[in-house]
Amino acid sequence: MGFIAEGLHKALHLIFSGNAEIFAIARLSLAVSVLATAAAVLAGVPLGSWIAVKKFPLKKFLIALVNTGMGLPPVVAGLVVMLFLARSGPLGFLNWLYTPKGMILVQFIIALPIITALSVSAMQSVDPKFYQQVLTLGASDWQAIKVCLKEIRLTVLAAVIAGFGRLVAEVGAVMIVGGNIRHQTRMLTTATVLETNTGNFDTAIALGLILLMLSFTVNLTLTLIQQKKAPR
Fold first, then answer.
1. pTM beyond cutoff 0.85
2. Which residue from 107, 101, 114, 110 is spatially nearest to 47, judged by alpha carbons?
């Protein structure tokens, strides 16, 4: 217990002394996860809504594929993205490997099926007659979907929370694509692994505490927005 207490004491000292490197890592982690989540929401919510309301061949197969993507192993996503972004890969010309852009891309791929699948489920909970009624009033497909999304906005916010929660705690994919390069692509999760492996437990504990506080703050903000809009 003394070992743990000493580690916590050193960790709190690093946090409250404003260690520049630790907070730079925290800022990068927040930026990458927030941007990836935002991109996944912008793509996944309309896509999931469209899948839910439209009738087309292989619809059930597509939904099953999206649901399977919710369990996509991050290391597999990281490997595929790395191969595509490698110099000899199809997207090598972007020069995104071992950069924050590459990490945002792989996190986007991880979050997209989660938000899409939850959006499908949320939109399917809307009464089909309501959607058809909006269409009969002269709305286009996307206008009708937008109206329906207003009705299920609380569930959509829950999808955002789920997507961000998955990304902020992710290790394998960003380590593969980002390379865990100091002052460039080091995230809170990858830095925690590195410091633990090298025996710097005080720094690892500090990083872990910051990660928990960061995750809690963002999720608390989203939850307050969600509950504020919830019917009383």
1. yes
2. 114
User: CA 190, CA 159: separation in Å to the nearest integer?
Assistant: 25
User: What does each of the 232 residues of the chain score in pLDDT, given as a tens digit?
Assistant: 666 777 778 778 878 888 888 889 999 999 999 999 999 999 999 999 999 998 889 999 999 999 999 999 999 999 999 999 999 999 999 999 999 999 999 999 999 999 999 999 999 988 888 888 888 888 888 899 899 998 888 889 989 999 999 999 999 999 999 999 999 999 999 999 999 999 888 888 888 888 998 899 998 988 888 777 666 5
Sequence-distant (≥ 6) Cβ neighbours of residue 111 within 8 angstroms: 36, 37, 40, 44, 163, 164, 166, 167
Range 2-124+158-229: architecture per CATH: Orthogonal Bundle (1.10)
Distance CA 210, CA 26 (A): 7
